[in-house]
Amino acid sequence: PIYEFWYVTDLSIGPLHENSLSCSQNPKFRPQIFELSHLKTLSFFNCFTSLHDPITLPGDKWEKLAASLESLEFRSNPSLIGPIPTVFGNFQKLESLVLIENGFTGSVPQSIGNLRHLKRLVLSGNKCSGQIPDSLGNLTELLILDLSRNSLFGQLPLSIGYLNSLLKL
């Protein structure tokens, strides 16, 4: 396909920066995004906002970006609903996972603990529930952990004590 020739490394969609692409009127995840094999940064800001037309993240397509993606952000997308895909735990190079003010539900996936290079994990302002997974203690390079404004319960796992680099909790 033609997308093999595209060397896009950073894609920001929404009114985030002056040079960001604007959101479409009827936003959805087009298959072409998942063909950008050199993509390092992907951001969606304020794109999925219609509560009358909710959308879920397509869990099966993200694997194509697992080898290249270093930063993934979804900010202020209230109609982006459903669970956080467990496949995100397969992103070998991911350093930043920021999911702020969306409609994500369900538990924080245990697989997030596989992200050995993760420095920033921000899941604030969603509708996540359940306990904080022990596997987050595996994120030894983590600097920022923000799980605020969700419906998480229980005690903070003891494994969080192994996060020696943590600057913000």
TL;DR of this structure?
With 169 residues, the protein is an all-beta fold. It is built from no helices and 9 strands.
Would you spell out the secondary-structure blueprint of this structure?
Layout: E1 10-13, E2 41-45, E3 55-56, E4 71-83, E5 96-106, E6 120-122, E7 127-131, E8 144-146, E9 151-153
Parallel strand pairs: 1-2, 2-4, 3-4, 4-5, 5-6, 5-7, 6-8, 7-9
InterPro entries: Leu-rich_rpt, LRR_dom_sf
Protein name: 2-alkenal reductase (NAD(P)(+))
Subcellular location: Membrane
Task: Please describe what this structure looks like.
The protein has 169 residues and is mainly β. It has a single domain (2-162), classed as Ribonuclease Inhibitor (Leucine-rich repeat, LRR (right-handed beta-alpha superhelix)). Helices cover 0% and strands 29% of the residues. The protein has no helices and nine strands. It has strands spanning 10-13, 41-45, 55-56, 71-83, 96-106, 120-122, 127-131, 144-146, 151-153. Strands 1, 2, 3, 4, 5, 6, 7, 8 and 9 form a nine-stranded parallel β-sheet that branches. The model has no long low-confidence stretch (mean pLDDT 92).
At the first level of CATH, the class is Alpha Beta
Number of strands: 9
CATH homolog superfamily: Ribonuclease Inhibitor
* Helix residue percentage: under 10%
Strand content: 25-35%
Which secondary-structure class do the elements indicate?
mainly beta
What distance lies between the first and last C-alpha atoms, to the nearest angstrom?
A: 44 Å
- Series of H and E elements: EEEEEEEEE
Q: What would you say the CATH architecture is?
A: Alpha-Beta Horseshoe
Shape assignment:
globular
Give Rg in angstroms.
16 Å
Low-confidence stretches: none
Give the integer mean of the pLDDT values. 92
Q: In the CATH scheme, what's the topology name?
A: Leucine-rich repeat, LRR (right-handed beta-alpha superhelix)
